[in-house]
Structure formats: structure tokens, C-alpha cells
């Protein structure tokens, strides 16, 4: 028999966990973690230059310097697995042409590509800090989702066995998931800051955080609140169980 307080805490924890997992999943799959605002392009020479950057971005070899410069100058957005640019209507003869978002994904080998102290210059030496920040920012959210899936499977087995004993472990898994998500956001912000130090933004180009990053940031405290409710329910149930056992023995 489960006390109503424990049942309420478990239901709320489940809702929070589902919301946090959905938010994190959407954040991982979308491309708006960081976005750049570039000035309007004027002049045929500038348009030709940007067209060549775009073609290199879409069809050229993977190079951090190349795609970063293109993102800076073409209102780019970048996520954990995507990098996108906006194709300007000024490139076309038709002035009423719509602007299009063109994206390329980061392949798994590209995610493990080392970062260099001078982007594009392979002779400058590997920047270990930026390299491992980049790897952590895409590995940690996957670890977070894996922990939540494991917690869900454990909870399902606990329901089948009609036992509250695994709740403590489920709470710890949610706590670790929340910490991994928070670490993801921190690694991403630190990595972008270091990138902007070695690759200066062009004049009149501004960078800002995107809504995908905020979704990930929101999911972290939701997982932690779910963990707090689960840990409270596990601790309170354990205390009441020992009290009832002592009472029966007495």
C-alpha cells in the first residue's frame, strides 16, 4: 500500500521527467543553440564572395575555419549536430525571392575532429581544451538521455514487482541526468567563447543564444526536481517502513 503523499510525489516526478526528456530531445535535434546576425549584403563583389563561401560550406571539405566564417557572414545558426546558413534573396535576380535556411549536419567522425589553436591552420597545434569541450557537448546529452531511459526501465520493473525499493536509484539517475545536461550547456558556452577568442567576429556581426540552448537549460532543473521528489519519497517510505517493522516487533 502506497501513501497518497508518495503517490503524488511519484506522479509529479514522472511528469517532470517526461517534460525534461522531451525538452532535451528537441534541443539535441534542433539547430538553434547559437545564432549570428549579419548585416545586409550590398554590391555585386560582396555577393559573389558570399556565394563562393556558401558553395564551399555546402560542398567543400569539412574545415572549422571555413564553416565558421560562413556562419559569421550568412546569419548562421549552429547546434550540436547541425550548422546552417540563410541564403539571402540578394543573391538572386528576383528581389522577392524568399530567404532559405540551408543546413549541413556534423557527421560522427567530424564530431571527433580535433580543434586547432588557429582554426584552419593544422600546423598551429591541437587545442586540447576546445577539442574536449566540443566532444563533451555532444556526448553528455546522449549520456543524459541514456540515464533517463535506464531510470524509466527500472521504474517499469519496479511497478511490475510492486516495490518502492528502486526509487532511490531512479532518483540518483535523474540527478546525474540533470547534471549531465547542465554540463552540456556549460561546455557549449565555454566552447563558443573560446572559438570567438581565436576567430574574431567580423564588424557588425552579433552572436546570441538560441532557443534550443534554453530548452536544454530548462530540462536540467526539471530533471533535478524530479530527482528531489523521488529521493524524498524513497527516504520517507524507508523511514515509515522501519517504524512499522519496529512497531510490529514490539
TrEMBL record:
Keyword Membrane applies: yes
Membrane topology: Multi-pass membrane protein
This protein's GO CC annotations: membrane
InterPro entries linked to this entry: CLDN1, PMP22/EMP/MP20/Claudin
Keyword Transmembrane found: yes
UniProt keywords, alphabetically: Membrane, Transmembrane, Transmembrane helix
Subcellular location as annotated: Membrane
Transmembrane segments: 7-28, 138-160, 167-191, 211-234
One Pfam family it belongs to: Claudin_2
Recorded superkingdom: Eukaryota
Predominant subcellular localization, coarse grouping: membrane
PANTHER family linked to this entry: CLAUDIN DOMAIN-CONTAINING PROTEIN 1
Protein name: Claudin domain containing 1
